[in-house]
């Protein structure tokens, strides 16, 4: 476990344990070169502490690149709380977690993620001010999935522009894996754009709710069935690792663009996708609308201002895709290059004295 941390390039990793409340959590800060690390809190029943640590390391690294590419003055961090949120989430667990966040003295700003919601952040905020994604009633931005879905939609339009010469998604078949917060909102945007949507989710109640709102949505049993559909766009919007060599062998879509983090399950998948002519819109590029939303909260949240900035994901995605095409690298490498250039460029400014 220790070797995993020291070999990951992270600045700081905190293991949080409060026996009385039952809290077991990991807070991982990959980089604070651009500013305080920002990233959500995932509450998930990991099979082991090692699995939780691995996820925190991966997610916090992705957040550093996401925030950089989104033009935010924030580094990358992420927290994971080990446990089933339906069984183990409580006021005492969340407040104990808030005390650990506070102990980082502003180096990390937390927010919602899988298994946590804006009301949970209100509870965490009773112990620390270093919280975003709070409820509207408490001066926050509310549910960050709103602009996460909006950003994915903009990235999808940019990918369509690059591949087909037009951002219009009308008539295109989009397969969405995940009918949760982001997947359901993305479905709504795509239906409004006259796209055809096929969706899957193991949560039957989520599917039923979505089909109740949009009867024209097609439903398939699982992800294996979804990727076997003649899709134009495959949109992973659930957990990571959605694109593996096994799934790639069956995938018929021309574009992969979704809201899930860490979509590529194995090293080199981006090269195999490119070789097959599948255009990959890098996940941390297109799903940055949520972090844009919660970052705006620090200025006194204004939804229209945040949405305007998230709309810029169209241009950022297009820039990534065009850089990849012009230099012969994969789109994943192109996105990393742009993010790393910004992190390095701003970091060099530290040698300049700014004054009081």
From TrEMBL:
SUPFAM superfamilies to which the protein is assigned, alphabetical: Aminoacid dehydrogenase-like, N-terminal domain, NAD(P)-binding Rossmann-fold domains
Protein name: Glutamate dehydrogenase/leucine dehydrogenase
Recorded family membership: Belongs to the Glu/Leu/Phe/Val dehydrogenases family.
Top-level taxon of the source organism: Bacteria
Keyword check for Metal-binding: no
GO MF terms, alphabetically ordered: nucleotide binding; oxidoreductase activity, acting on the CH-NH2 group of donors, NAD or NADP as acceptor
InterPro entries: Aminoacid_DH-like_N_sf, Glu/Leu/Phe/Val/Trp_DH, Glu/Leu/Phe/Val/Trp_DH_C, Glu/Leu/Phe/Val/Trp_DH_dimer, Glu/Leu/Phe/Val_DH_AS, Glu/Phe/Leu/Val/Trp_DH_bac/arc, NAD(P)-bd_dom_sf
Alphabetized UniProt keyword annotations: NAD, Nucleotide-binding, Oxidoreductase
Any single GO BP term: amino acid metabolic process
Annotated PANTHER family: LEUCINE DEHYDROGENASE (PTHR42722), VALINE DEHYDROGENASE (PTHR42722:SF1)
Binding residue positions for NAD(+): 178-183
Domain Glutamate/phenylalanine/leucine/valine/L-tryptophan dehydrogenase C-terminal: start-end pairs: 142-351
Matching Gene3D superfamilies: Leucine Dehydrogenase, chain A, domain 1, NAD(P)-binding Rossmann-like Domain
Catalytic residues as annotated in Swiss-Prot or TrEMBL: 78
Lineage, highest ranks first: Bacteria, Bacillati, Actinomycetota, Actinomycetes, Cryptosporangiales
